[in-house]
Every structure is written in structure tokens, then in C-alpha cells.
Amino acid sequence: MKAIIVGGGPAGARAGELLANQGARVILYEARAGWEKPCGGGVPERGVDFCPFLAESRTPHVLARRARIFSPRGREALVDLAEPLRIYSRSRLNGLFLERARAQGAELRGRRIVSLSRRERGWKVVDSAGREETADFLVGADGASGLVRGRLGAHLPPLRQTLGIGYYVDGFTSAEVVLKFFRGLDGYLWVFPRPDHLAVGICGPTGQASRTALAQEMSRFLADLYGNGVLRRLRSYGARIPSPPAEAERGSGCIGQGWALVGDAAGFVDPLTREGIHYAVASATFLSEALARGEPAAYPARWISEFGLELDWASRHKALFFAPRFMEAFTSLSRCPPISSIVSDLIAGRQDYRSLRRRLASHLPRVGGALGLLLLKRLVAGRTASPPPSLVPLPAE
Ligand SMILES: Cc1cc2nc3c(=O)[nH]c(=O)nc-3n(C[C@H](O)[C@H](O)[C@H](O)COP(=O)(O)OP(=O)(O)OC[C@H]3O[C@@H](n4cnc5c(N)ncnc54)[C@H](O)[C@@H]3O)c2cc1C
Questions:
Q1: How far does the centroid of ligand 1 lie from the alpha carbon of residue 218, in Å?
Q2: What's the rounded Cα separation, in Å, for the pair 307 and 305?
Q3: How far, in Å, CA of 79 to CA of 339, rounded?
């Protein structure tokens, strides 16, 4: 098989690596190889299951072992993470994926695909230099607003759009991730430490909050948490994050005759956390395994059973998750051991949403006791403050 892959992010590069490893001739087009995609760069451990080499790779990253969570009213919980969150700069992470694809024999072309058309057997694409290429199979890994989804996914329901804006805060790193929730925002703010900067961002559905309001919230929160000094060296960014609509078709439309979509291009993004890296690599894995078996239809079937139903449920129950009352209770309870391990599992991608309510409820009797104990300790020892936020200044270059 000869395959053209449009897009060399985690989805396209991983698909390229796996298909080339299976003996396919792979031509991988990436318009912006080496770019720093606006992103938190957090890869949950469930994503590492699909890319075990990440656990051994020397690509610089931070292993965050603690999460500091703030509710809309400012309640704070510190949660030790049983499995760390790996946080990468996207140029480094993409570089690693592309290098692995190349090492398996995929041919990387640093050009944009500007048009595509069907041929009697397969596809013809034209790149930004006007060169043509043909193949039997076409993989769209060029993101939610990419050319391939636009051309081949016209039958798919339109994706929801979230506005994400952020700062790369130079001069500091940290040992913990910070998550902050707000009243009236179906989104959240994150501080993800990387080896040589903090990746800070805030997201909310387009139309719910303006760019200016989000930027003000973010600056105010950072100054309150770390002091004004942290705001000195900022590089700002803005981006759209896609997520599946409620009542989505769960992923069955991600494949057709001689083509498939993976990652963001297929709309495979968590509608609550807006994470997509591990879905990108998982979809690349499912697609390549299905093609290797000569059963393309196994790709959407596996996607739906492993993630599609789950993300569909999350889309439909989004409002419950971001409801201020839920967030206040959830943050308070996260301080107690049974619930803190659920939060740790959520961050690692080990806790699915559909069984979350059942698991929370099953722990409530124990939580009641643990909360009582916390209250008693406070009465005896006075209010115990959380350790101060972790912020590590880096030496000036
Ligand atoms: C602000 C923000 C924060 C995020 N934070 C996180 C996070 O912390 N953790 C997480 O898991 N996810 C996060 N996400 C989501 C994550 O970035 C995506 O889900 C993930 O990158 C999807 O990978 P992909 O390979 O499908 O697409 P992409 O990474 O978007 O890659 C698509 C590639 O296709 C290339 N391309 C596009 N068109 C063409 C063309 N015509 N020809 C050639 N190449 C083309 C682009 O240059 C791009 O490199 C975040 C997203 C945003 C916007």
C-alpha cells in the first residue's frame, strides 16, 4: 500500500510510523515541521500506553507529580498524582514523533497540501510547490479545520469550537500542575510546567467569554498565585480547540473508501478537558492495526468502543461537570484520600466519565469520615495552610 498522510502532528506522525513499520510506502506532508503548536503539551499516562517509547525517551519534559486545583470560589486542593503527567513543548514532542516516522522509512515532505482529488484508484494531491503525488490511501491528520476533513468530512456534524488563549511564561518552571475553574465558564485555566517555561492557558466555548475577559482572568490569577514578577516575560498565543458536538455520531464517519481521518481531524478531542494528544495517537494506532488486518471498518468500531461512547457521554453531560456546585464539592472532596485517587486517575486518563458518578458515590461514606477527621484536625491545630505554590526561577540565559 502507498499512503499519503496530510499533517505531521502526533496523529499523522504516529500513523506514518506505524504504517511504514507495517511495510506501507508512506509520504508524510507537514506544512510547519518544528513549530510550537499552541497547546498545554500535557500527555496523560493513558497516552503513554499507546506510545511506550515516551516513558524512555530523552526528549526533555517535566513529570508533574502533583496537581493544585482551585474551585470557582477559590477552594484549594492538592492532589498527589499516582501517575505523573508528562508535559512537553510541542515542537519537541512533534519532533520526536516525526523522527520516529522517518526512522521507519516514512518520507517527510515539509510542504502544505493545497488540493486533493480522487483518481480512478486512489488519490492525487498537490503541494504548495505545485508538485503532485498519488497514493492508494489518504490519511487526514491535518486538524479540525484542515483541508482533508473539509473535503471528505462534509457529512460529519460540525464540531464545537473552544477558544484557547495562553502565555508561555519564560524564566520559570514548576513541579506541579495548576487547574482553576470559574463560575459561568465551561472551561478552565491550566498551568503546565515545561523544562524551560510554564505553559499557561485558559479555554472556554466561543461566544461564552471574550478573548479580553479570558486574558484578564488569566493575568489576575497568575499574579495572585505567584506574584506580579511572573508576568514579566510572556509570549502569548490564541487558538481554536475543536470538540465533538453533543449527539455526535461517535466517530463512525472517520473512514470512507480509501481514506480515513485521525486525531483532531476526526474530532477526537475530550469535550471537557479539551485534551487530544492521546486520542491522536490512539486513533493512529487503531487505524494502522485495522489496515494491517485488511479490515478498515475495525477502526471506527474500536474507536467507538474504547473512546467514542465515552466522549459522547462527556459531550452530553458537560454542563453537569462545570456546574459551580459540583466543582465546589468536587474540589473540597479532592482533599480526601478516596476522592484524591479518583482525581489522580482522571488526570492520568484512567477514570472514564461514564463510571465516575458510580465510583464517587461508592466512596461517599468513607469521604464523610475523612472530611470529619480533617475538620477535627483543623479545630485542634488551627487552619492548616497548603504548601505555597511551586515556582522555580530559571537562571537567565
Ligand atoms: C490551547 C490548546 C491547549 C491544548 N492543550 C492540550 C494538552 O495539554 N494536552 C492534550 O492532550 N491536548 C491538548 N490540546 C489539544 C491538542 O493540541 C490536539 O488535540 C493535538 O495536537 C491533536 O493532534 P493532531 O496530530 O490530530 O493535530 P495537530 O497537532 O493539530 O497536527 C496537525 C498538523 O497538520 C499540519 N497541517 C495542517 N494542514 C496541512 C496541510 N494542508 N498540509 C500539510 N500539513 C498540514 C499542521 O501544520 C499540524 O502540524 C490543546 C489544544 C489547544 C489549542
A1: 22
A2: 6
A3: 9
Q: What is the pLDDT of residue 57?
A: 87
- Rounded to an integer, what distance in angstroms lies between the CA atom of residue 352 and that of residue 310? 7
C-alpha cell at 204: 472556554
d(CA 273, CA 67): 14
Q: Which atom of ligand 1 is nearest to the CA of 32?
A: 47
As a whole number of angstroms, the distance between CA 203 and CA 187 comes to 5
Which pLDDT score is estimated for 249?
61
Amino acid type, 248? A
- Residue closest by Cα to atom 21 of ligand 1: 277
Give domain limits for the chain: 2-37+89-157+248-316, 319-381
- For the chain, the average pLDDT equals 92
Give the mutation target among 275, 281, 303, 311 for probing the ligand 1 site: most ligand atoms within 8 A of CB.
Answer: 275
Distances (CA, A) of 126 to 4, 15, 20, 146, 218: 11, 21, 22, 15, 42
DSSP characters over 195-242: TTEEEEEEEEETTTS-HHHHHHHHHHHHHHHH-GGGGSSEEEEEEEEE
To test the pocket of ligand 1, the residue of 26, 28, 30, 279 to mutate (highest count of ligand atoms within 8 Å of its CB) is 30
Ligand 1 atom having least distance to the Cα of 265: 26
What does the radius of gyration of the chain's CA atoms come to, in whole angstroms?
22
Cell readout for 21 is 513499520
Residue 338 confidence (pLDDT): 82
Overall fold of domain 2-37+89-157+248-316: FAD/NAD(P)-binding domain (3.50.50)
pTM for the full predicted model: 0.94
- HSE-up of residue 268 (Cα within 13 Å, Cβ side): 30
**The pLDDT value given to residue 383:** 55
pLDDT in tens, 158-167: 888 899 999 9
Which strands form 113-118's sheet, in the order they lie side by side?
113-118, 123-127, 132-135
Number of H helices and E strands in the chain, helices first, is 13, 19
CA distance 305 to 284: 15
Q: Which of 14, 28, 39 is the best mutation target for the ligand 1 pocket, counting ligand atoms within 8 Å of the beta carbon and taking the most?
A: 39
Distances (CA, A) of 7 to 139, 241, 395: 9, 17, 36
Per-residue pLDDT at 244? 77
Which pLDDT belongs to residue 369? 61
Give yes or no for residue 376 having a pLDDT over 70.
no
